[in-house]
Structure formats: structure tokens, C-alpha cells
Amino acid sequence: MPKELNPHIRPQAPPAAIEVGSYGGLQLKKAISVKLVDFLGEYTDDVLAEYILVMMAHGKTRDQTQDDLEAFLGKDSIKFTEWLWENLAENKRTYEQMEEGGAGKQPEGEAAQPTAEGSASVV
Questions:
Q1: Eight-class DSSP state of 94
Q2: Can you give the pTM of this predicted structure?
Q3: What is the pLDDT of residues 26-52, one digit of tens each?
Q4: What is the DSSP secondary-structure string of 76-91?
């Protein structure tokens, strides 16, 4: 279950340092693509997920991200951005990995996979 963010503290910068072509960046892009289906229905275009990933890699603030996504998600940009920041915070170790098995490596035979709900599941 995702943690409630303190409404009085609004983190501006993304809570994880993302590299677009890294293992962690690819994992974030997958999670974003899955979550976009909740907001856009049968989402099949990878361009919006890539755009969001690039915004995170460039350190767009929470407010900038929300404003930029309003053109695509309307008022749902608020809910999506809230999910995105929670997901980034909860999966920080995974998303900051440069390559599979890098920093934040799980015990032998187990790999954390971020979920669209925001938490990592062990497979």
C-alpha cells in the first residue's frame, strides 16, 4: 500500500536520480507505461512514457511535471504526478541502478520489479 505523502511537504525535485538509458530508467519507463493505461485506457504509444522519463532525468520539479502533463491527462495530471513521486520514492534503489544487478541488488535469485501501484515486488 503506497505511503501517504505529508501534504505540508511537497518535494519538488524527483526523489530519484534517473538516467534515461540505464536499467533503472527502463524499469521506470515500464512502470509509467503500465500506469498510463489507468489514465488513458488502451494506452499503446510509448512516446508519452518516454517524455515523462526524460522530464524526470532532467530534474523537472513536481509542479513543472504536473503542468506539462496537463495537456495529456487534464485534471488527472495531479493524481498521476502524485503517483509518480510516490513510485519514485518507493523504488529509488531500482530506478537509480545503471545496469541490471547494480546498486540495490536483491538476494541471489530475487529481483525487485517496480509495480504500477508504486511498490517493488520480489520475483
A1: H
A2: 0.71
A3: 999 999 999 999 999 886 778 999 999
A4: HHHHHHHHHHHHHHHT
